[in-house]
Amino acid sequence: MNKKLLGVKFLERCEKMMINLMDGFDKHLDPEKKILLLEECGRKCIHDRHKKLIQDAKSLYKNSNDMKEFLGKLSKIYDSLQITKEEVAFIWDKCYCPVINKIPAGKISPTFCNCSRGWVKELLETAIEKPVEVILEETVTKGNSRCKLRVLI
User: Fold this and answer.
1) Whether residue 61 has pLDDT greater than 70
2) In terms of Cα–Cα distance, which of 98, 126, 92 is closest to 112?
3) Mean pLDDT for the stretch of residues 35-39
4) For position 8, what pLDDT does the model report?
5) How many separate domains does the chain show?
6) Which residues of 38-63 are buried (b: 16+ CB within 10 A; e: fewer)?
7) Residue 110's domain is classified under what CATH number?
């Protein structure tokens, strides 16, 4: 068997494992536990994959006069952060998570998207050094056309 085919088979097995893992979370864990576990994954992911974004966010906050100025500056370097008069939200046009983004909508539990909640919380909480609330409003895993996480600061 060639290496490319082996790689495809491996990815398919990993995707199936994630589907099964999320099904198990939904079946055996209470909602708070599964949210905390997945948020922790997202918190670690941002530190593993986006160190510069975290450093930039910390610097922007330190050099801003208030939260509005900070969020405006952050939205200029990370365009998925969108600010309107009504809300602050992270919006992605598709799932960018390399772990599940090839899995079709409806095949994996939306529980997984709490990982993204942890990612957003860690980015903002690390920068401003206080807790934020993040609400999953839309996710590709639920069949929405985008992912939208609203932020309450």
Assistant:
1) yes
2) 98
3) 96
4) 76
5) 1
6) bbebbbebbeeebeeeeebbeebbee
7) 3.30.1380
